[in-house]
């Protein structure tokens, strides 16, 4: 008489990520990283623009020309190339001048495909 050897139920079928699924997941992650890597410098520049706008609104002597000159000084220091002081929109408010901006950043990918980011901000955003 032979006894049948039975495996515990937990070892019969183990779930998990197979080699093919792992390769597919790695390809998807690589494509996302390749597409988003060129966007990182644009986001860093946007953060520098927000900081320069806030500082120039406080330091710019309160006149539109002074605010624009202050922004251009900060832009030269932080290597901001997407906008200039002349692109700023300056409005008066009871709390002082409100400086705002808006611009597009286009990142070519391959052939006719490109990413377009619409950036906007203001000196009164927290």
Short description:
The protein has helices at residues 9-12, 19-36, 39-59, 64-78, and strands at 89-93, 96-110, 113-122. The chain is α+β, with helices and mostly antiparallel strands and 126 residues long. The chain has one domain (20-122).
Key attributes of the depicted protein:
3 strands, 126 residues, three-stranded antiparallel beta sheet, 4 helices, alpha+beta, single chain
Structure description:
The protein is elongated and about 85 Å long. Helix 3 (39-59) packs antiparallel against helix 4 (64-78). It has one domain (20-122). It has helices at 9-12, 19-36, 39-59, 64-78, and strands spanning 89-93, 96-110, 113-122. The model has no long low-confidence stretch (mean pLDDT 86). It has a three-stranded antiparallel beta sheet with strand order 1-2-3, with helices on one face. The longest helix is centred in the middle third of the chain and has 21 residues, at 39-59. The protein is α+β, with helices and mostly antiparallel strands and 126 residues long. The relative contact order is 0.14. Helices cover 46% and strands 24% of the residues. A hairpin with a 2-residue loop joins strand 2 (96-110) and strand 3.
